[in-house]
Design goal:
heterotrimer; A mainly alpha (104); B mainly alpha (173); C mainly alpha (498); A: 104 residues; mainly alpha; Helix Hairpins; 3 helices; 74% helix; elongated; B: mainly alpha; 2 domains; 0% strand
Chain lengths: 104, 173, 498
């Protein structure tokens, strides 16, 4: 079977879902951040695939967008990890389930 | 050949990501993320985005994951934290997954404005790194500058969030 | 490239960034030895000057554009567009930021003074860019600019457990929402093969874009932006963030970022909702989100005793009301959404600022019964707070009433041929009216606490600074003015949208 756009789209949807399940179910903050990276990465794959199969790949829209999202994902990870440090200082854990002191 | 490579890389990517979600140890998760991202980088190559494949490897494997590992080592959390999913959120995740897959299946009807039906090689001049840089510093100069401000925010944020003030240190001691 | 043009286009932003660097530089060197409060006053003064100069830049651009000048057309190759409407909203963001800086300076959470104001200034830039953005890349970068600075600001009191906890919750939920947004944007790009709003709108209205892609994209965008505007069921971060972040930051999250997000919603969804074949499905989805927000927000607010948390739930409910204007899917709807976003943020900023003042004098979070007898001790502050709360409740003649009126009329008027209760949006408006009635319970509960005279008022007589007083007074005047004379703003928005 020839590889078409749909192959890539389904792959990225699967990747996004894996990341989403991880981000929703894992309570370890660092693993959650890793899952966030997977979700963003799935979107990158989408962008590149749409660009490749689109009518005018010469315009480089997809890769440029992806370049920005990679940079943004990196800054997000940096800020998230700083927050993890702060959380660890107060709660002595990185388990989100135990970081629930706020009352309803 | 390309078919086989696609399935190989896709398998690496998905298995890597799946292993990340199921891994108990954050160090393993971070290392497995590299595997998954290597798979994606290879997929980028199959799509003709060579420069981005390189960026993906350099930024993620080279910088982001190192940062993750650094923090994990710094915290030195007990690695054997348990994977005990909360069943409500897990059910929510599964529902979301089902919706995603249904939605994607709906996409099988192809849009008319996709000219390339199968993978093929792109004009190497058009996708060269040079034209990439040209676009980045002309059309997309403003977002580029704003991304610079974004890095500044990350820097400011990280400095004050992770910095230990003298008072808190005294409390801790 | 035409460098002078680029320079003039980003003039306000350049001034603000420069001001931020000056403030940072002075704070790290010259002010280093001073005590935090003095530093805070000095840095706030510098930030105020920067924002005012920036605002002057925006006003200058506004005058140029309304005069028909072509200086700013197509600068940065369509990354940003400066029209009277976008410039007006950008100016509004700068004005709100000025208020926030005044409210923030009396009670800086810790000694990182310049970072605090720096992040407020940078988030202002992000909101301004988001409003003027005309390109998906610019859009995503500015949204992240806003989000990252707000995550940092929420977790600013790093020595307090709750602040950090609220920060990490905001961050994780916001991160997931960004991923949803990006995934949606990638489908939007795939469907239209364009990054500019203009191209996307053209592709969607001409029908060139595959409908199922547009639908998927919109679904993801609703989820992603639903998080940003704190609509249910994506609202879980809002109560904690509003309650535990510094109060001026909560005010800023509730006002500035809301305006920017709703502006984006109108811009992105306007064309999709008006022309797409999948209109029905999409509208059904947004109606669901709207009803859920109204119900969960208002019911949730009923059982709160902490005033900030109550306002957080009320903001969820307001997101629901505003979405009613969006489902109308016509120009009236867009006008009413923008109008309501403006007056809602003015009133909510005022309410949060008042609570911030009370909190800082109490030294802890204000509960509703802390307000007992405030009327006698602080009549001025009470009157201002009442104006904000009554406007949020939608009591005529305050602006909140007209905002809701326009939203509901737009929804009903969108299907003029339907006259029965079971069809059209009559039932939606009925739900909204019912929920507004419910909301009266908790607003009145707060007001009653102000008015009843307690034997021992818990609040001492409060001295407010000149800047705070002037800010609150100005906000209250705006809220009242827009209630008495709403047509001016509405007509301006209508004229610029058309």
């Amino acid at each position: 079977m020839e590889i078409t756009l749909n192959h890539y789209l389904i792959l990225s949807a699967v990747l996004f879902t894996i990341g989403l399940i991880g981000a929703l179910t894992r309570r370890h903050i660092i693993i959650m951040l890793v899952c966030l990276e997977i979700m963003l990465n799935a979107a990158n794959l989408n962008l590149i695939a749409f660009w490749h199969f689109g009518p005018n790949p010469i315009l480089l829209h997809g890769p440029l967008f992806t370049l920005f999202t990679i940079a943004i994902a990196a800054t997000e990870a940096a800020l998230g990890l700083a927050l993890v440090l702060a959380i660890y200082r107060h709660f002595k854990t990185v388990d989100l389930e135990q970081v629930q002191d706020l009352k309803e | 050949m390309v078919d086989f490579l696609f399935y190989l890389f896709a398998l690496i990517t998905v298995l890597g990501a799946g292993a990340v979600v199921l891994s108990r140890n954050p160090v393993n998760a971070a290392m497995l993320l590299i595997v998954s991202f290597m798979g994606t980088a290879s997929l980028f190559v199959t799509l003709g985005a060579y420069f981005l494949a390189a960026v993906q490897v350099a930024v993620y494997a080279g910088a982001v994951i190192v940062l993750f590992l650094f923090i994990i080592m710094l915290l030195n959390v007990d690695a054997a934290e348990q994977f005990r999913p909360d069943y409500v959120t897990f059910a929510g995740g599964l529902i979301a997954a089902a919706l995603m897959i249904l939605g994607t299946l709906k996409l099988f009807e192809r849009g008319e404005n996709f000219t390339l039906l199968t993978l093929q090689e792109l004009d190497p001049v058009g996708v060269s790194t040079q034209s990439f840089g040209m676009e980045l510093f002309t059309t997309y100069m403003l977002p580029f500058q704003v991304a610079g401000i974004l890095l500044l925010i990350a820097m400011l944020g990280v400095v004050f969030i992770s910095k230990r003030d003298k008072e808190t240190r005294k409390d801790a001691a | 490239m035409n460098y002078p043009q680029l320079f003039l286009t980003t003039l306000p932003e350049l001034i603000v960034v420069l001001g931020m660097f000056v403030a940072l530089g002075f704070d790290y060197t010259k002010y280093k030895e001073l005590d935090p409060q003095t530093r805070s006053n000095k840095v706030a003064a510098l930030s105020t000057i920067a924002l005012m100069l920036g605002l002057a830049g925006v006003v200058w651009q506004f005058l140029q554009v309304t005069d028909g000048s072509k200086t700013f057309s197509n600068s940065f190759n369509g990354q940003v567009v400066l029209t009277p409407l976008t410039l007006w909203f950008k100016g509004l963001i700068f004005v709100l930021a000025l208020f926030v800086v005044q409210f923030a300076k009396t009670d800086v959470p810790n000694k990182h003074v310049s970072e605090y104001f720096g992040l407020i200034l940078l988030s202002t830039l992000g909101m301004g860019f988001l409003i003027t953005a005309q390109n998906l890349i610019m859009l995503f970068v500015s949204i992240e600019l806003i989000s990252l600075s707000l995550y940092g600001l929420t977790a600013f009191q790093t020595d307090k457990k709750f602040s950090v906890e609220a920060g990490i919750k905001y961050f994780t939920i916001g991160g997931v929402s960004s991923a949803f947004l990006l995934f949606g944007l990638s489908y939007l790009f795939g469907a239209t093969n364009e990054l500019s709003f203009e191209g996307i709108t053209a592709a969607i209205t001409s029908g060139a874009a595959p409908q199922n892609y547009v639908l998927i994209a919109s679904a993801f965008l609703v989820v992603g932006l639903g998080f940003k505007i704190a609509a249910a069921p994506f609202h879980l971060w809002a109560p904690d963030t509003y309650q535990c972040g510094p109060v001026p930051v909560a005010a800023w999250v509730a006002s500035g970022s809301k305006i920017a997000s709703f502006f984006l919603l109108v811009q992105l969804f306007g064309p999709v909702l008006e022309t797409s074949e999948q209109k029905e499905t999409l509208i059904a989805g947004i109606v669901l989100v709207s009803v859920l927000s109204m119900v969960l927000g208002n019911i949730g607010a009923l059982r709160q005793s902490c005033v900030k948390r109550l306002l957080a739930y009320s903001s969820i409910a307001h997101a629901g009301y505003i979405l009613i204007g969006l489902v109308a899917a016509n120009e009236d709807g867009s006008i009413s959404v923008l109008f309501y976003a403006v007056i809602y943020s003015l009133a909510t900023l005022g309410a949060f600022a008042t609570i911030g003042i009370i909190d800082s004098r109490l030294g802890r979070e204000a509960q509703i019964d802390d307000f007992n007898g405030t009327w006698k001790q602080n009549p001025g502050l009470s009157i201002l707070f009442m104006i904000f709360i009554l406007s949020l409740a939608g009591i005529p003649p305050l602006s909140g009433f007209f905002g809701k009126f326009y939203l509901f009329m737009a929804a009903i008027g969108s299907q003029p041929e339907i006259a029965s209760w079971s069809e059209g949006f009559y039932w939606l408006v009925a739900v909204a009216l019912l929920m507004s009635a419910v909301s009266l319970f908790y607003y009145v509960k707060v007001l009653k606490a102000f008015l009843v005279s307690a034997d021992t008022p818990k609040l001492p007589s409060i001295q407010i600074t000149k800047a705070e007083g002037a800010g609150l007074l100005l906000l209250a005047v705006l809220v009242v003015y827009l209630g008495i004379y709403p047509t001016g703003l509405v007509e301006f928005i209508a004229a610029s949208l058309g």
